[in-house]
Amino acid sequence: MTTAPVQRPLTDTSQARIAELEAEVARLRRRLNATGLDTRALDPGSDSRADVARLVGWLAICTWTTDAKGDFLEPQPYWQAYTGQSWDECRGGGWANAIHPDDRERLRRSWAEAVATRRHYSAEGRLWRADADGYRPFISKAAPVLDERGRVCEWVGIHTETHDRRSLEEARIASELRLSAVLDNTRMAVFMMDDRQRCVYMNAAAEQLTGYRLDETQDRPLHDVIHHRYPDGRPFPLQDCPIDRAYPEDNQTSGEEVFVHKDGHFYPVAFTASPIRDQAAKAVGTIVEVRDIRAEKEAQARLRLLMNELNHRVKNTLATVQSIVRQGLRGSEIPSRVREGIDARLLALSRSHDLLTREAWGRTCLKELADLALEPYRATGEAAGRLIVEGPEIRLDPYAALALGMAFHELATNAAKYGALSNDRGRVRLSWRRDGGALRIDWKEEDGPPVIPPKEKGFGSRLIERGLAQQLDGSVAIAYPPAGVVCSIEMPVAA
């Protein structure tokens, strides 16, 4: 005959002590239900060892109960499925044999102390997991169940595997250490601001750059510390700061600004400000990378000084050459057209040089170069609207710009003397297009006087067909159909 178990009412204290265990079990039950498993088939009292082992293996937990003295008095299906112990092996105090030898005595003592003092039990150690054939770290929690007189009638406990949690924690710590090593050793200053634009992190380079420590910048916007006024003393409002717009506009910004050092001096910086987003892609702060560009600015100033001096000397040299040529061609035996042609070519070279000077002898816009070379012919008013220049944005190196500037001058001069610009209705179309890695330039005249191919090619034609092709490492072809002169230029061009 089987005696029904005695129903022991729980005191308020007992219920409070096992509240944490109930919450843990509820959380694990939700995890289990999310998998779609039939939990009714996984009753701990079931004889289905496979089902119990399946549940324990997936949840990586085991629950257990003991008597008031802390010993198992009845089979523990979850414990047995997790550890692989039989009932005979774990009954009484045999459960301790499933604990790692290095942890066994410590956990025996802490469990005995909890039982003796009736205190909530919590401990960490390593427990044998049968299906993994090895020990796994765990955290064990247990609470005493009290009867109506306040006496312990049993203990309810749970072992939760912490292997994944510890692995994640160790990975997080390792990642933070790597990140700290990078941030502390980089020369780039890095700031991190929260959603109120207050600084919450500065690396060593940022402290060195600004002269401030992190604790000196907290409780106020970073802008108010290092970027609050212009070099002329005017206040710099936060709402005008491009760095601080990265967060409210949720967009990365970059550029150059001037910061204020702790000692009061100003210094130029280059910055990139990017929003920090949470897992829902919502902006929650800003990370700012800042680079000191004082040395670069000083180097640029020195370079400008040298370039200005060089340009001044080159212009003086061109003026001297022009003066010498004019003096040498003053004699009456020199035709005026020769003097005018040489003088015009020197002026064309000087104009191209002026354009390159404005561009600091860097890459020059082809459209500007063409407009500058044709400007003298537009200025007369006779050719207004008859010079068409079109093509995509192309930038040329200085060597190619000088060569093409001279070529455009020669073609325009010829058109003004003999071609489409020599009458009142002719037109010139200068166009270009990119074709892969090549640049194709076409000069086409139309509605001018009928063209008669020259019997001998002059200096301008030879300059274009031979000299230009060699200078551009390309090809040049001039054709003389009756409708108008056509010049085709092909040359390599950078992407």
TrEMBL record:
It is an enzyme of class 2 (transferase). SUPFAM superfamilies: ATPase domain of HSP90 chaperone/DNA topoisomerase II/histidine kinase (SSF55874), PYP-like sensor domain (PAS domain) (SSF55785). Keywords: ATP-binding, Chromophore, Coiled coil, Flavoprotein, FMN, Kinase, Nucleotide-binding, Phosphoprotein, Photoreceptor protein, Receptor, Repeat, Sensory transduction, Transferase, Virulence. One of its GO terms (molecular function) is photoreceptor activity. Its EC number is 2.7.13.3. PROSITE patterns: PAC (PS50113), PAS (PS50112). Residues 11-38 form a coiled coil. Residues 253-305 form the PAC domain. GO terms for biological process: regulation of DNA-templated transcription. SMART domains: HWE_HK (SM00911), PAC (SM00086), PAS (SM00091). Residues 175-227 form the PAS domain. The keyword Transmembrane helix does not apply. It catalyses: ATP + protein L-histidine = ADP + protein N-phospho-L-histidine. InterPro entries: HATPase_C_sf, PAC, PAS, PAS-assoc_C, PAS-like_dom_sf, PAS_fold, PAS_fold_3, Sig_transdc_His_kinase_HWE. NCBIfam families: sensory_box. This is histidine kinase.
